[in-house]
Every structure is written in C-alpha cells, then in structure tokens.
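Structure tokens please, single chain.
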Amino acid sequence: MLTLSFDPFPVLITERLTLRHVDENDVNEIFFLRSDKKVLEFLDRKPAETIDEAMEHINKLNDLEKNNESINWGITLTGNNKLLGHICFWNIKKDHYRSEIGYALHPDFQGKGIMHEAMNAILKYGFETMELHSVEANVNPANVPSIKLLERNNFIKEAYFKENYYYDGKFLDSAIYSLLAVNFSPQRT
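Here you go.
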C-alpha cells in the first residue's frame, strides 16, 4: 500500500513554471476557474456562484492534502505568484497505487504548452516520489484539447463509457485514459 506524506508541500519547478501550494490568497483565481464558462465547458459541473464557494473548495483541498488523500498544485509562471491554473492527483487508491489526475487552466494561457509542462512535472513526482503504478484521467470525449494533452503525455484510452454520467438533464459519455509508470518518460517541454 502507498504511504504518502505531502508535508512539507512539494513545490515543483520547471523551465517556466512554479507549481506551488494553493491557499486563501488564490481565492479569486480559484473562483474564476470554477465559474468561467470556457474553463467549465467540458467539466460538467455546476459553476461556483460565490467567492465563499471558492474558499470552501480551497479549504476542502487543503484538508484532503493534510490527510494525504490528494494533492493539488497551483500553476504559476516562475517569478509571478499569480495562479494560472491548477493540477492535482486525487481519488488516490493507495491499495492499488493508482490516482486520478485533474487540471484546469485559465483560457488566456491555454495552447502555450503550460499544462503539458505542469503535467510532465507532476507525473514525474507521482511515479518517482509517490511511487504510483498508474494514473487515470476521466475526460469528456468532446474535449479534444484535453485528449491531445493526455496523448502527448503517453496516456492511452482504456475505456469509453456510453451515457454513464448524468449532468444538467443529459446523460453524457466518459473516456478513461491511463498511463502506467513503465510507460512514463519525462519529456522536454
């Protein structure tokens, strides 16, 4: 079984990015990421309506982190502490050495390789430090940019579920992608 400890928080540095802890100072950016229509287009969840909801979300993430149940990094450009997005390991199955990956990025920074760089860094951490065996991504099949990001990081499609998710009065499909540790190779960004 995995034994995890996210204390002290593992700050990750890449060529352009600093992946750091998310805290109450990020509440406005988290609110944007949880309420913006473009960010939520394929996430199929109710948008946040208040700053208080964003703060509750930050507190929930931090509690899960303290209990070593998930870890969430804020994505910033090195030298600028403003949050551009976040990326996480959640739904960690310690008995199975498996975690789900989740991520969101401000639309102004999409298409610039930022999420690829962040994903590569946390996958390296997940496989080498956390000792994960596999990482899973559950993606809306219409989210072509996310699928391309996953495939660029060597994820493969494991499953396609027809109408397995109900949201906003509709049954939606899900695609499951995964990456085994043995198939991970850190990439130059």
